[in-house]
Design a protein that fits this description.
The chain has one domain. It contains 4 helices and no strands.
């Protein structure tokens, strides 16, 4: 239980900081304009919105527990991949990364994922 709380805290901390730190890295570290840096952040919002429309179907298809397990690994890999960006990384790859990262993390925060994963028949009414 403690490992899941600490792991969840660190993951949410990283995902929450990404919209602020990634544009800063693009501007200060890589010398991109604020507009180019904003496009990277915009890609993240597009990925999250796209995933929200599919989240309920994906949860029904694969199951809540299976999806959350796989999603934890996939999201962590995408979050850690930000550490590999350099000034020579192609902008298209950097632009596409937040979209997929946000899409994978949106699965964790969809309204359906906050509901109880128990079958309807065993829930109290």
């Amino acid at each position: 239980m403690r490992a899941s709380i600490i792991g969840g805290f660190l993951f949410r901390l990283g995902i929450g900081a990404l919209p602020f730190l990634l544009p800063l890295l693009m501007q200060v570290g890589f010398g991109l304009s604020p507009f180019q840096s904003g496009l990277v952040t915009f890609a993240s919002a597009v990925g999250a919105m796209g995933m929200k429309t599919l989240a309920a179907r994906i949860i029904r298809a694969f199951g809540f527990r299976n999806l959350m397990t796989v999603n934890a690994v996939v999201s962590s890999v995408f979050l850690a991949a930000c550490a590999l960006f350099t000034a020579t990384t192609p902008l298209l790859l950097i632009f596409d990364h937040p979209r997929w990262s946000a899409a994978s993390s949106a699965r964790c925060s969809s309204p359906r994922s906050t509901r109880s994963p128990m079958p309807r028949s065993s829930r109290r009414r």
